[in-house]
Amino acid sequence: MIVSGLDNNDDWRFGKSRAQYKRNGVGVYQNVRTRLKSFTSDWFLDTKRGIDWYTLLGTKGTETQILREVERVVLETEFVKTIETLRVIERRKNRAITIELAITTLFDDTISDEVRIEL
Q1: For a FRET experiment, which of 12, 61, 114, 116 has its CA 20 to 30 Å from that of 38?
Q2: What is each CA distance from 80 to 4, 105, 110, in whole angstroms?
Q3: Is residue 34 within 8 Å of residue 6, measured between CB atoms?
């Protein structure tokens, strides 16, 4: 698997040919992060894709629902084998959340990182 790399602002990186691409497990994890940061109705071809972050982060007591939605999206991502770790690290009043996530891919890579979602 090969995908175009993203910079720190989640924009595509261009200009250095093959060095800008992510391969195998790292590429899968980048796809997971991108999908988690997608909001419902973001993609006009499938308005049900993504997560309804506005509702989930705007309502108290939704941590369990958030984790279920994150789990659903991660496991639906191509080449993801299992979720090793999934937990909310921090949830702020300003509609932001940080999630700790570790996955194992079909390439037998285990990758972990924190994903931050902000409205």
Answers
A1: 61
A2: 18, 4, 10
A3: yes
Q: Are 6 and 13 in contact (CB under 8 A)?
A: yes
Calculate the alpha carbon distances from 19 to 2, 8, 61, 87 in Å: 11, 16, 43, 32
**DSSP category for residue 78:** T
Alpha-carbon gap, residue 54 to 7, rounded angstroms? 25
pTM: 0.87
Per the listing, tokens 């639906």 go with 76
Report the residue count for the chain.
119
Tokens at 81, concatenated: 């084998």
d(CA 89, CA 77): 22
Neighbours of 46 (CB within 10 A): 10
Here the tokens at position 21 are 């691409």
Q: What is the pLDDT of residues 103-113, one digit of tens each?
A: 999 999 999 99
In a 13 Å sphere around the CA of 37, the CA atoms on its Cβ side amount to 15
Report the C-alpha gap between 21 and 10 in whole angstroms.
Answer: 14
